[in-house]
Amino acid sequence: MKFFTKLLAVIAVYILFNNSNVNAQGCVAIRGNGSFQTMDHPMLDTTIASDKSWYLTASYRYFKSFRHFSGTAEQKQRQVLGNEVINHQSTIDLGITRNFDQFWSATVGLPYLINTRSSLYEHGGKERHSSYSHGIGDMRIVVNRWLFDSHKTHKGNIQVGLGMKLPTGNFNAQSTFYNVTPAVRPVDQSIQLGDGGTGIIAEVNGFLNFTSKFSGYTNLYYMANPRNVNGTRTYRETLRATLANEANSSVPDQFLARLGANYTFQGHNSALTVSGGMRLEGIPVYDLIGKSDGFRRPGYVLSAEPSLSYSLRKINFFANVPIAVKRDRTQSKTDKENSIATGTRVIGDAAFADYSINFGVSFKL
């Protein structure tokens, strides 16, 4: 029981690390900004709930998106015809957490992204070429507080967090495109390194101990991006006249919800935790604050999320593999407007991954 009582502060260590380019996996562009993977795994040395300490976390995330969906319907013909878009995205996430006492903590994190996007339609439609982007992403700074004193509360706890996402990532990353003649221009929104907006992060994390080994967890996350568009040209207006409203990149909100359970095998100086749950993440059609003009691919992914964590003294290893069970590319604002104008339902498509691979390590300094 004591082990789980102290578990609550360790959750704060992991809240902002192990992406997420969280994340909806593919052209629904949730970047690796870290906040989309909240920790549900314990660390053996869990005194961070009650003392001043520092934690360093490093994580890695990879996925390949290639399955196209329009709404919830998969466009299987894209792979048969060989005109699907294929994204390979890797994110290395580094961050540091300062625990002030059993209530308060603050985390600063910065991802590094490596992206490749292979397509036909962006390169004239006859030959497949690739575009690239790599560099630092958007920084986040979040302050968290547990609502109840961990010294007195043993059954469970709730943590609330508030912070900012800073536009440190390049939102106008460029690569060479091959049409009539090669030209350098901005890469697709899904592999841009940042979105150009200053985001407002709000999150709620909680856990409940059912027994000394079995517990449940939940995480709710929303990032509001008040900025409307960021000025990065998409060139979508060159595809069809009906996409004229999408010539500029939108700065969209992002959301995440998780619910699951943990079971811990406790050793003398170590602990192995097995976790399982569901994960919902995506981009809304309309932002919570401000306008929602420009180009975005709204949608969501519902995933089954198995996880493992191994704790040994002052170090914790973790890994999870969210597996998509439902993918939905919802109607964008432009789709809705064109549906009204034409009298027929218009909806774009987006490429999604089958799963993502996430793993990392945390150290108490």
Automatic annotation (TrEMBL):
Keywords from the named record: Signal
Species per Swiss-Prot/TrEMBL record: Mucilaginibacter glaciei
Lineage: Bacteria, Pseudomonadati, Bacteroidota, Sphingobacteriia, Sphingobacteriales
Signal peptide: 1-24
Superkingdom of source: Bacteria
Keyword Signal annotated: yes
UniProt-recorded name of the protein: Uncharacterized protein
